[in-house]
């Protein structure tokens, strides 16, 4: 049976901190726009307060999340238990991209592992927190986080990553504004 929470409880925080992976979902306002859902890992999620969370947004080929939250702020984070007792937690909220030009970027950066290729921190003010059973989520054994993206970004370096973002992250697949750096 699903349960609604007013905030992230200490028990939920403990459970969330155990998860190695989460999913981010956003959508544009247009009914013809593409919904986006992305898996995330790499110790890139933080609970900042019982109703405020953030994750480290790394350079990638798309800019859907940032474009969508700049247009309408709607965002969903979902965690699934792939080991232990079955459980799903959904964090609905209003997102904001904290970009390198934002004064809050340095403070946010101090809360996460240092990485090359961080293009933003996605901060989410939570509006709805629920859990559900997760009975159909399969069991998996976590081996380790992949280091492919970190190695790729380190090899490219900040200058080439900036050029890449200018090429690949200016607009979403639906033409919404992404990054202008």
Question: Can you lay out the helices and strands and say which pair or pack?
Answer:
Blueprint: E1 3-5, H1 10-18, E2 22-26, E3 36-40, E4 45-49, E5 52-58, H2 64-72, E6 74-80, E7 88-98, H3 105-109, E8 118-132, H4 148-168
Antiparallel strand pairs: 1-8, 2-3, 2-6, 4-5, 5-8, 6-7, 7-8
Task: Produce a short descriptive summary.
The chain has 181 residues and is an alpha+beta fold.
Q: Tell me which CATH architecture applies here.
A: Roll
The number of helical elements comes to 4
State which percent range the strand residues make up: 25-35%
Briefly note the structural class of the backbone: alpha+beta
Q: Please count the beta strands (DSSP E, at least 2 residues each).
A: 8
How far do the termini sit from each other? 45 Å
Number of domains: 1
Order of helices and strands: EHEEEEHEEHEH
The biggest sheet amounts to: 8 strands, antiparallel
Which geometry do the CA atoms define? globular
Uncertain parts: none
Radius of gyration: 16 Å
CATH topology: Pnp Oxidase, Chain A
How would you name the CATH homologous superfamily?
Answer: Electron Transport, Fmn-binding Protein, Chain A
The percent range for helix content is 10-25%
